[in-house]
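User: Quick sanity check before I run a bigger batch. Here is a single chain. Can you write out its predicted 3D structure?
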Amino acid sequence: MFLKNRLAQQLTASQGRSPYQQRQATADLLPPVLRQNSLSTATVARSAVTNHSDLKADLKSAAHLRLVEDLRRRGLDDTADPNELRETIRQVLESLANTGRPLARTDKDRLIEEIYHDVLGLGPLEPLLADDEISEIMVNGPSKVYVERAGRIEKVEVCFTHEAHLRRIIDRIVSRVGRRIDDASPLCDARLADGSRVNAIIPPLALDGSVLTIRKFRREPLRSADLLSLNTLSGAMVKFLELAVIGKLNILISGGTGSGKTTLLNVLSAFIPEGERLITIEDAAELQLQQEHVIRLETRNGNIEGAGRIDQAELLRNSLRMRPDRIILGEVRGGEALTMLQAMNTGHEGSLATIHANSPRDATARLETMVLLAGMDLPLRAIREQLASALDLIVQIERSTDGKRRMTSITEVVGLEGETLMLQEIYTFHRLGLAADGSLLGKFRSCGLRPKCAERLAIAGLEFSAELS
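Assistant: Done. Predicted structure follows.
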């Protein structure tokens, strides 16, 4: 009763504040044990003031308070047997339900799953993560959740209880990979256990509540046959890229955000023969290489003082001392561009990397800019000479207006002519217009040119046959 009266007084005094400030002020009145252990602090506070009568909501709030202590007392965490955890939740619910109205079995089973996901999983996001048709999950604050299905974005009827609930889920994700997100570091890249990419940004940078973006990875990695069935590229393009990977050509995959660069990188990596030592370097490890001899390296953020940060450039320099046959760079973003080009020029052939760019020409321009921003006072011609000798192919992929991903170009880096980097397109996607349903019409075609790299492939015992032209 004392807590109820204090909460009512606080809510009256907090009129005029923002909803977030009101929730924080209300939560601050709860005893420490409730603030630390309850997974629905704001719900408990509102129940105390409004006398909420909904049985499921009351049971869920009460079960949250009881469960954390029960799980801690029994020594259970997310590594325990899921059946044992669910049974513990069931026992707590039954002991609480016995004191009030009975709960239907279907409602009880649903409530058990909800609490299980809230306590040890990702809460209301779990059903979305289990849906194989969803490729991206976008949380714009606690009450707005969007997903991408078949290239289309739609809003779903999923929400978090409040901002604190969403923050707990974000903290759980980033802490599992040794990262942190707080007022001192309000944005973070992370990953889920299955390799799905995660980005989170919290207030005060995000004005309307924390924002969480999850790029889901398929349980079964896509193969080249899957890309063919999805009409992402043609059979001739697949065969040529297979020859290029086996022949140890250096390949840069270019595309915009969400165009499928990492997926394509995974597909191309499947062509790498067994027996080679591969080293992957990423900001957040998400590549799904199928080979056995793979060393995965991941960058590290600095501590609260900014010390201890290890970036991609440093990992790349260190990887050169690890006897790699191939280096696979998740994404070129900064000063590691020069180190990557030097590695490609010093015997580490067959390397793969991705870059954000809208065309092959834009990709080379971005690489030039990155090298200059790395602080190396090099003339532009010297940088372009490095590019011309390091890169062999630039593969352009895009997400079209109809939501589908397509490989729009395979371009060869021919060499340097004067101050100009010479590019030669080998395959392209020829657009023909839009269908009645809005889908893009077009066809993949060869440009009819024999690539310069065909000579290198021939030396490796690989033939660029006429049927690929």
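The CA atoms of residues 141 and 207 lie 9 Å apart.

User: Great, the batch can go ahead then.
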